[in-house]
Amino acid sequence: MLRSARILTALALVVLAPLDAMARWTELRSENFLFIGDAPERTIRAVGQKLEQFREVMVRVLPGATMTSPVPTVVIVFDQDRSFTPYKPTFQGRTVDAAGFFLGHEDINYIAINAEASDLAFKIIFHEYSHFLLGNSAGTVPVWVGEGLAEVYATFQERDGGKGAVLGAPDAFHLRLLQNTSLIPLRELIAIDHTSPIYNEGVRRGVLYAQSWAFVHYLMFGNKDRAPQLTGFLAAIESGAPSEEAFRDAFGDVNVLDQELKDYVRLFTFPALQLTFGEKVGGGSAPRGKVIPDALAAAYLGDVLARLGRTDDARAHLRSVLERNPDVARAACALGLIELRAGRSDAAMPLLERAASLAPDDPWVQTALGRALLSQFEEQRAADGAESLLQRARVALTRAADRDGTSAHTLELLGRAHLMPGGDLARAASVLERAVQLAPGREDYRLMLARALMPLLRAVSPGETRVRGIFRSVDCQPGAVVLNIDQGGRILRLSARTLDDVEFIAYRQDAPGSVSCGIQQPALPVLATVRGMDGQVVAIEVVEDDVRR
User: Fold this and answer.
1) Nearest to 68, CA basis, from 40, 105, 33, 21
2) Which pTM was predicted?
3) Cβ(131)–Cβ(32) under 8 Å?
């Protein structure tokens, strides 16, 4: 399970307290976030606008990257530090004084913001949320890319009342550090990973962050010829190319780039990107908010406590909510998930069943039940009655997916359920393909999709051979067509009398609806089936990247 929580540090003693009886909790939805808060609606709306703008900036700066969260993101806006303090992280029994934090999990994300210190909160949230979105889009990236991009995105500043923004304003602290210390040789910087000593300890870690910021800033804003190279590098990483090879192919001589970076950090002025949105983006134009019961707000907060690792506090908090308000499905579900993670299925299942009964249309609750039932089936598949667990899991997960088709976690679970005995392989392939589109950085999703697709592939008849490659183009001439299949630079020329004589089958949604003469856009991986020694092509199957013959 994905877990992350970066926080702003300082210590203060605090005890868990109930919700302020005078607070009024408001819920507001924007295009990409759900907000709840005890702050005034205008404050929540301003936070929403800023987060939607930030996400829009990421989309514009990294075209082609997936910048949509693969799971719901709930933003909790606290009006004051006093109401936020009971729900902050703790360390060694003491509360960490945080202005805000981001928690990324496989089924849900949480962002918490203290409205009294929003400028401080946004800086770290922008940093961590960009890590999350980049990882979801490209998977694991080199440290210098991940930290450099996150530090650049953390400089996001709103302009013109929400109609514009600036990205890439120089970070004075980083610049001062770099101008007064020796830089890490670029050849060493690009080789640093999460196990490297410099990443985990020592004063040079600050230089690592600062230099990664400066390097990415230079590539994005400092040299117009280098910016496309960064995009190409990220695309190569996403496609699975080794980091060193991708770097060399994208940027060329590392020594030349090393000198360019040294010259760049000596500058006293740095370029920044000015963006104009025209109309306000996102949260500022979101529908009017609505007041929600305190008990529902408390259920969200109890789940936050659990995901911060404050399990005892969360359990006590959620039990208290359910004692006073037994029909709050989200509280029952959050408590059930705590017990499930603790390995206490006997305690978890009644809570999850109860939550699902109370909230049949809540996709998060239905997914939690489906996940638990699927886990029980996997543990008990040889026992009597195990098949009923699997069937019930499919029902709950189908209900969740029908109500929210944007949760990659739900779709992956449903696909996995249909890969099991008695499942619908076509349904598995369909939902797993969608999960891969939502979370292209998840290699495990891709491998599961490949498993789903293999049995669906066209059967190879006697005398036929299947080959794999990239479908580049079709050459048409009187009485014949030639399909050009690229196998790592070697072009196979496969012939047929007409395109109508070739069976075209697609197993991915971005495949073109038809094939015609000329360059094929996009160029996608295919399995080509040929008959006989002369290479007559009889079938082209457009497949996912991981599907082999």
Assistant:
1) 33
2) 0.83
3) no
